[in-house]
Write a structure and sequence with these properties.
19% strand; alpha+beta; 4 domains; elongated; six-stranded mixed β-barrel
């Protein structure tokens, strides 16, 4: 065994605690990089594979009237269409047992489950639906307590429960688990559908085009809409699907980018302990460096010894980080993919992720250690052999030392902790950097979550409704509003007009010129609608062809306040409108615009009628809203007035909050890793302090200091460092929080309004106190076990 190898081995083995902390710190950073890169790779691959495996239709077009098989066949023969398929989808009420309460559900019927053309529904177990049987989406079985194969569910038909047997469990790529889905989805044959809802024809057409492109798909959708309109069938807003790219791919790309940045931050902070450790080792071994130079050692040779030790740190960290990173990446991707109803990938060690980890695990620590090593080995022989003690006699001369020297009347152990904390100002600064970064990011993440929730709350508050009810046919406003206000639990009701159409810049032509739009006609004296504007003004009395445009749609169209837009309302014809304001609205794919109801009705020739009622309840709780929703649904059913949908405000808000909480969870996972790095850094710094103060500890023990006294000094230092980092992280999070929330919002295309979370301040204070005490516990225990004899022995 060579002398050089023995020295490296001795430095690593004799200080096993220090070696372990450095290895763990590097491993956490490398693990974060490996986990996120592996997760992103698996998610992108699985989303693409799942999309293509489902053979997605290029256009999904909802219809307001039913069409039969012959109409679907005629659409398939259009030159713009390659293949077409009809699908039936209806809302229905169901319950898992006869004693249960009725709940909402969706029932879907396909023409032939054995010969599906596209948007393939996959049979996971059991059999396809047949007469008097149904299948259930597998993600909806447990959340909604649906009985398994062979069990019976009950659907409401003519106010009576109709039993249907569950024959199979399927996976539909177009469906999502909770919280994205609020109701279960069942699958039946067209014959069974007719028994349940009274019709068997299609209210949705799905088709592909010869060669996919988004503009061509939009042109084909327009052509199909026009052909259907000639036979009296109007269509809703089409959904265009890229056959090779999942609809949520852009969102996941944005989330992945944010996580990569946080992983890099974690890796960068983990190297701080490497810098502190190498600085301490070099300072401790200055006499050894002088002796090696005296007997002929060159600076590059000596530097190589210390770099070899750092390389060993990196190699040992890879032994932990590589398998844990691969497992973490697979687990994280599986969780996210499950939320999106996409099959998870089997475990595998990805080559790209492995290369990222090896390169970062070896190169990053070496780069971090290079400067302190070069600086240390460049010392002259005379300086190395003449140096005495730690700090070369400068302690007490700095500004911090002079301030601390004026602090009196503290308990003895507290005074020692306070003064010892700042003896190595450079080391303290680097240690604080990790804790400050962890604290600031933690508080910014919680502020992001709070900002998202408050933004969603403001959006729903601006719309003001507690319950919304849609009618199949327009209803008389003067009759329906007082009727609904007379129902139990209703405080106020307003009839609105909802209308789909096309919007474009005046004179614009060609593919991509038109955009889908969903108009909301509000009463001029509305008490419900108080919009959250991002630019311009609200609607005013006397406005005619004025509209509030969704800011997302305005951005896509490159229009602003004061610009004119052209609307095509199908049976309402074409007209020109002026954008007077931009509105923040997450609903209807952010394709909404708000106008006065009476002006819109004039364009549609529906004067005095409306299709939707927005209701404010007397009590604002979720249960009260659901009671009013159910009572109105039952009442209109008894009056033979067909409803197209019902919903509640709190349910919508909770669903939106739950979706964004997934992002917050991911950010908190990364923040947790950064906090671990910070605690390792603090523990490493205190461990180094213990090694450097062995003689001081021995002297204290010799003059009567107890083990508790010694432990209090080091635990006090750790707690003080934690509190100082908290005090600095708070203003940093205040300054950077707004930019952090805006950056996250841009990444996921959600322009949240910034709100700072004050509760995050106190939560991080509690966390940092616990972390500081835990991180200082091991070094303090090690300090109490140092005997007088071994502490004063010559090394």
């Amino acid at each position: 065994m060579s002398v050089a190898f023995r020295k490296v081995w001795r430095d690593l083995w004799n200080y096993k605690g220090r070696t372990l902390l450095v290895v763990l710190s590097i491993a956490v950073g490398v693990l974060a990089v490996g986990m996120i890169t592996a997760s992103n790779t698996l998610i992108i691959r699985q989303m693409g594979d799942s999309q293509q495996a489902s053979h997605p239709s290029h256009v999904i077009l909802p219809l307001r009237q039913l069409i039969d098989d012959d109409t679907v066949l005629s659409l398939a023969h259009m030159p713009e269409v390659a293949e077409a398929e009809g699908v039936s989808e209806a809302g229905i009420r169901w319950k898992p047992t006869l004693d249960s309460a009725w709940q909402d559900a969706t029932v879907i019927a396909r023409a032939d489950y054995g010969q599906q053309t596209f948007d393939l529904v996959e049979l996971r177990s059991g059999q396809w639906p047949a007469s008097k049987t149904a299948a259930i989406e597998f993600n909806h079985v447990e959340p909604y307590h649906v009985p398994g194969i062979g069990g019976t569910v009950y659907f409401e038909v003519n106010n009576r429960p109709k039993p249907i047997t569950i024959a199979g469990i399927v996976r539909d790529p177009g469906q999502f688990p909770p919280p994205f889905a609020q109701t279960p989805t069942f699958y039946v044959t067209r014959d069974t559908l007719e028994q349940l809802v009274g019709w068997r024809n299609f209210n949705q057409v799905r088709f592909t085009i010869p060669i996919y492109s988004k503009p061509d798909a939009q042109v084909a959708a327009d052509a199909v809409e026009k052909k259907l309109l000639k036979i009296g069938v109007s269509a809703g807003v089409p959904t265009i699907q890229d056959p090779k790219r999942h609809a949520l791919q852009d969102v996941m790309d944005g989330v992945g980018l944010v996580l990569v940045v946080m992983a890099i931050v974690s890796l960068g902070l983990s190297t701080i302990l490497v810098v502190n450790t190498i600085n301490a080792v070099v300072a401790q071994q200055v006499p050894q460096i002088g002796i090696m130079k005296t007997i002929g050692g060159l600076s590059p040779q000596i530097a190589t010894l210390y770099l070899a030790g750092v390389a060993v740190y990196g190699l040992l960290s890879l032994g932990l980080a590589v398998p844990l990173g691969a497992w973490g990446g697979q687990a994280l991707s599986a969780w996210l993919l499950t939320v999106l109803n996409i099959p998870a990938a089997p475990f595998e060690l990805l080559r790209a992720s492995l290369l990222y980890q090896i390169s970062t695990g070896l190169v990053t620590p070496l780069l971090a250690a290079l400067w302190p090593i070069v600086q240390g080995v460049s010392i002259s022989v005379r300086e190395a052999l003449s140096a005495y003690g730690l700090g070369t006699g400068r302690y007490g001369k700095g500004p911090i030392d002079r301030v601390l020297g004026k602090v009196h009347n503290l308990p003895r152990m507290a005074a020692l902790s306070l003064r010892n904390t700042f003896r190595r100002a450079g080391r303290v600064a680097l240690t604080e950097l990790t804790l400050i970064a962890a604290g600031a990011i933690f508080m910014m993440v919680l502020s992001t979550h709070y900002s998202f929730n408050k933004s969603i709350e403001q959006i729903f508050k601006s719309f003001g409704f507690d319950v919304v009810v849609g009618f199949e046919q327009p209803q008389r406003i003067d009759k329906m509003e007082p009727l609904i206000e007379s129902r139990p639990g209703v405080a106020h009701a307003e009839m609105w007009v909802w209308q789909t159409g096309k919007i474009k810049l005046p004179g614009a032509k060609g593919p991509g010129a038109e955009y889908d739009i969903r108009l909301r006609g509000v009463p001029a004296d509305t008490e419900v609608f108080k919009p959250e504007l991002t630019a311009g003004r609200s609607l005013r009395p006397g406005d005619r062809h004025a509209l509030l445009l969704n800011q997302k749609l305005a951005g896509d169209m490159h229009v602003g306040v004061g610009d004119q837009v052209a609307l095509d309302l199908d049976e309402g014809g074409k007209s020109t409108w002026t954008v007077v304001g931009l509105i923040f609205d997450l609903g209807a794919r952010q394709q909404t615009a708000y106008v006065y109801r009476d002006i819109l009705n004039q364009e549609l020739n529906h004067v005095g009628r409306a299709t939707v009622v927005e209701i404010q309840t007397q009590v604002k709780t979720r249960s009260a809203q659901e009671i009013v929703e159910k009572e109105l649904r039952d009442y209109f059913k008894s009056q033979s007035i067909a409803l197209s949908f019902t919903d509640t405000g709190i349910k919508n808000q909770e669903q939106a909050n739950a979706q964004f909480s997934i992002l917050t969870t991911l950010l908190l996972i990364m923040t947790f890793l950064i906090a671990i790095v910070g605690s390792f850094g603090l523990s490493g710094t205190l461990s180094i302090n213990v090694l450097e103060r062995r003689r001081e500890i021995g002297v204290m023990r010799a003059v009567g200091a107890s083990s508790l006294d010694v432990a209090q000094i080091f635990m006090g230092e750790g707690l003080l460092l934690g509190l100082i980092s908290w005090a600095q992280a708070v203003p940093l999070s205040l300054l950077a929080g707004r930019y952090f929330v805006e950056a996250i919002g841009r990444a996921i295309d959600f322009p949240a309004v910034y709100h700072y979370s004050t509760s995050a301040i106190w939560l991080w204070l509690a966390i940092v106190v616990v972390l500081s005490l835990l991180a200082s516990g091991l070094p303090a225990r090690r300090a109490t076990r140092i005997s007088v004899r071994e502490s004063l022995a010559y090394e």
